[in-house]
Write a structure and sequence with these properties.
Gamma-B Crystallin, domain 1, three-stranded antiparallel sheet, 6 strands, mainly beta
Length: about 120
């Protein structure tokens, strides 16, 4: 569920079926702390998962929003931010075929440390 830009000032994520922003792509702004179920063609088929540059991270999940995680390893790849090296190719870790949903959270620590 995307949110109008006037409602949420950050939370934009680029999702594409191919690596490096190729294939079918959607860029939308999503509400923080709300799970988003992916629909075809992105469900189990998202190679590009690229959050915009604001201070937030997103957690891709291998289960739907109403699903129950039964994996002993957990059901998330972990946080992905604008600065994540694999955001343009989740197929490197195999997560392009696992992702069913995601949730984004505001996080000042997602910004790079400035000396």
């Amino acid at each position: 569920m995307a949110v109008e830009a006037s409602v949420a000032t950050f939370g934009g994520v680029l999702l594409c079926t191919g690596p490096n922003a190729t294939g079918v792509c959607i860029h939308s702004v999503y509400p923080m702390m709300s799970c988003v179920d992916l629909e075809p063609p992105l469900r189990h088929n998202t190679a590009t998962f690229a959050p915009d540059g604001e201070a937030f991270v997103c957690y891709p999940y291998s289960a739907g929003c109403d699903g129950i995680c039964t994996s002993p390893e957990g059901c998330t790849k972990g946080p992905i931010s604008f600065y994540s090296p694999d955001k343009f190719d989740l197929s490197i870790s195999g997560w392009n075929s696992f992702i069913e949903s995601f949730e984004c959270r505001s996080n000042e620590s997602s910004l790079p440390r400035v000396s």
